[in-house]
Design brief:
The complex is a heterodimer. Helices cover about 70% and strands about 0% of the residues of chain A. By secondary structure, chain A is mostly helical. Chain A has a domain at about 5-190: Up-down Bundle (Cytochrome C Oxidase, Chain A). In chain A, a hairpin with a 2-residue loop joins β1 (about 180-185) and β2 (about 190). In chain A, α1 packs parallel to α3 (about 90-115), α6 packs parallel to α12 and α9 (about 280-295) packs antiparallel against α10 (about 305-330). The two termini of chain A are about 20 Å apart. The termini of chain B are far apart. Chain B contains 7 helices and no strands. Chain B is elongated and about 50 Å long. Chain B has one domain. Classes of the chains: A mainly alpha, B mainly alpha.
């Protein structure tokens, strides 16, 4: 197939999405640190509803997941799908629409949450007008992504695109089904489901939002950027394909482990627990694949702080994906549920895995996009140690606090009465919350350093034009003939 | 150089890592003496502490456990530490082949003894088994241990610092998984009635 010399990859939209992602991580993480302080000094909401925990907390979570996370995923998906398909983005104006419409949505969504509009479903708090907007933008994201794949010039579809594709399809399905509701006013709706059904659907959504967005999407990032960055092929491509299908099949069943000892059938809880345990296998397959890939590129660590973030993110990915199934075991969950251990677990994933893999990717990607070396490698190295110590301190303080809390919730006296009141338990947590605040601040300072470093690298510079390279003949996809010319098996890496 | 002093891991870790690389740091009999002492200290302190001051979870009065329960907890703790330490040595040796280490088992034992030395000494905090007090003492010590691991591993095992960083991170991953496993197993034991009494 002929290839026009005029074609260049659409990287300006990638750069803009990275800027938005960094903006959101500062805002949302700042909100998180403020919330951590509210646990110690509850009066710092100054009597303002919009500063209260109930309203600020969903801004923190939505800002991180949808502002920081989705912007980063859109950026890296748009960047990598062009390079693995050897064509520029399909419908680039639609990609720009996705970029700006998504930011507008997150800003307006955050304002609505601060104003008290909420569906009260965790991670799906936004009310119905926003839900419809999310669905429309998400479909547009899918059109750009799958359109690019459909117009590709290379036969194989690289593994990162399978993960990004899984993210787009499954999140669309989860979002639409979970948010089916009857609107009452412009700012209020009621779920179509009731009682236990509502809980099951909500956690089918909630857990798989973690699974396919915060895990699957970021695995797409890992599978593209780790080999590019380390200049090594994936250690085992076959293992990556197997783990993709095993991951996709098993994750979708695991949601009920959020509802142990609840008013849902016991067999549903047990099924959720068993599928959570099975999930360990594909998760660790990916971790081992990543570590073995990077272990061949150890020389690069000398000059490349970005790779350190990716290496560390794999260690925390291993931890979080082990801890999750363990906490899904009912005899462990009985103590860990409704404690800060869960918060520690979530942040071992969010800080250790999602943030670190994204930071490593940004440190790699931004200099490439603008054709300039990173402004300060020393600053990036300082950021690395701040991120590591902040994450470790966060996790350990929440482990200790959470276990102590769990024991106190379940402690009874000789008469079978609860030994501790809610107030006593919360008061005993103050010291742990102090450590958590310090940990959050350390991590946040590192993130601000990164924002400044990346900002200085990008400052006043446009993206470097890159043309798609020619595709080797044996991998070429001949569309005019209506068939491909290749004889290789599907799944062979293209990147 | 003469054989390393028992307390060198605390005060002169840099020197001792070089000596491990040369094979001079600890003789096998010295290791055979040090290891059991280090592994027995934390459960011993816990046993003493839970008897003297009781287990303190926070604001409330201390929780005194029966002697048998204290003994079971301390022995389980000792068992977990032994499995953790020897498991880490085994895993480190297994990882070593990937990262190009060509050292005997003694080097791994010596390295990890030095790395874990501060935390075992700091476990004296268990004598006053208040949850937050222990976190306050053990957390900075743990960060110290991690820095010893990152600094010492490439020196002691004679591999380039970059490979050392990779191997150290892999070991940190393993240790975090080990730590959370201990938490999970402990909680599992509590729910079947071994340990503090909880209403499950």
């Amino acid at each position: 197939m002929s290839q026009s010399n005029q074609e260049i990859y659409h990287d300006a939209v990638v750069k803009r999405l990275i800027q938005f992602s960094v903006f959101w991580v500062i805002i949302a993480m700042g909100a998180g640190v403020y919330l951590a302080a509210e646990f110690i000094w509850p009066t710092i909401d100054f009597g303002q509803f919009w500063l209260s925990f109930g309203r600020l907390r969903p801004v923190h979570t939505n800002g991180i997941i949808f502002g920081f996370g989705v912007s980063a995923l859109m950026a890296t998906a748009f960047y990598s799908v062009q390079r693995t398909s050897h064509v520029p983005l399909f419908m680039p104006k639609l990609a720009w629409f996705c970029c700006y419409a998504w930011q507008l949505l997150v800003i307006l969504g955050a304002i609505s949450l601060l104003a008290g509009w909420t569906s009260s479903k965790e991670y799906a708090e936004l009310e119905w007008p926003f839900d419809i907007a999310i669905a429309i933008i998400w479909v547009c994201f899918g059109v750009v992504f799958f359109g690019t794949i459909a117009t590709r010039r290379i036969r194989p579809i690289y593994i990162s695109n399978w993960f990004y594709g899984g993210l787009i399809i499954v999140i669309a399905m989860l979002h639409i089904v979970n948010n089916l509701a009857i609107p009452v006013t412009f700012g209020k709706s009621y779920s179509l489901y009731a009682g236990a059904q509502d809980a099951i659907v909500q956690w089918w959504y909630g857990h798989n939002a973690v699974g396919f967005l915060l895990t699957g999407g970021f695995l797409g990032m890992l599978y593209y950027f780790l080999p590019k960055h380390s200049e090594q092929p994936i250690w085992s491509y076959r293992l990556s394909v197997i783990s993709f299908w095993a991951f996709t099949y098993s994750y979708i069943w695991a949601g009920p482990h959020h509802l142990h000892y609840n008013s849902i059938p016991e067999w549903v809880q047990s099924l959720g627990m068993v599928m959570s345990l099975i999930l360990l296998a594909p998760s660790w397959a990916t971790m081992i694949n990543g570590i073995m890939t990077v272990s061949k590129a150890w020389q690069k660590l000398r000059v490349d702080p970005a790779l350190k973030f990716i290496v560390l993110s794999l260690a925390f990915y291993g931890l979080a994906t082990f801890e999750g199934p363990m906490m899904a075991i009912r005899s462990v969950n009985v103590v860990s549920h409704f404690t800060d251990w869960t918060i520690g677990h979530v942040h071992s994933g969010a800080l250790g895995w999602n943030a670190m893999i994204t930071y490593g990717t940004f440190y790699f990607l931004v200099p490439k996009l603008v054709g300039q070396p990173l402004h300060s490698i020393r600053l990036a190295n300082i950021h690395f140690w701040l991120a590591l110590s902040g994450t470790i301190l966060y996790i350990l303080s929440m482990w200790a606090g959470g276990v102590s809390q769990g024991l106190m919730w379940l402690s009874v006296d000789d008469y079978g009465q609860l030994s501790f009141s809610f107030r006593e338990i919360m008061a005993s947590m103050t010291s742990y919350y102090g450590l958590r605040l310090i940990a959050g601040l350390i991590f946040f300072i590192g993130t601000i350093l990164m924002a400044w470093n990346l900002g200085m690298t990008m400052r006043g510079r446009n993206t470097v034009p890159v043309t798609p390279p020619p595709v080797p003949e044996k991998f070429r996809l001949d569309r005019k003939a209506g068939k491909d010319e290749t004889t290789i098996a599907p799944g062979v890496p293209a990147a | 150089m003469q054989k390393a002093n028992f307390f060198y891991p605390l005060f002169r870790p840099g020197l001792i890592f070089t000596e491990i690389a040369k094979g001079n740091a600890f003789s096998s009999p010295a290791l055979a003496f040090m290891l059991p002492v280090l592994l027995i200290l934390p459960p011993l302190f816990l046993w003493l502490g839970t008897g003297m001051f009781g287990w303190r979870l926070g604001s409330a009065s201390p929780l005194y456990m029966e002697n048998t329960v204290r003994l079971i907890i301390s022995l389980s703790y000792f068992g977990a530490l032994c499995i953790g330490f020897f498991g880490t040595v085994y895993i480190a040796q297994w990882m070593g082949s990937t990262y190009g280490v060509k050292k005997s088992s003694r080097a791994y034992f010596s390295l990890l003894t030095v790395v874990f030395f501060p935390i075992t000494v700091a476990s004296i905090a268990h004598i006053y088994p208040n949850g937050f007090f222990n976190v306050l003492i053990l957390l900075p010590t743990l960060i110290w241990c991690m820095s010893l691991l990152y600094r010492g591993l490439p020196v002691a095992l004679e591999i380039p610092p970059e490979r050392g960083m990779l191997m150290s991170t892999s070991l940190v991953g393993w240790l975090l998984v080990g730590a959370v496993s201990i938490l999970g197993i402990s909680v599992g034991l509590w729910t079947v009635g071994i340990g503090p009494s909880i209403a499950v």
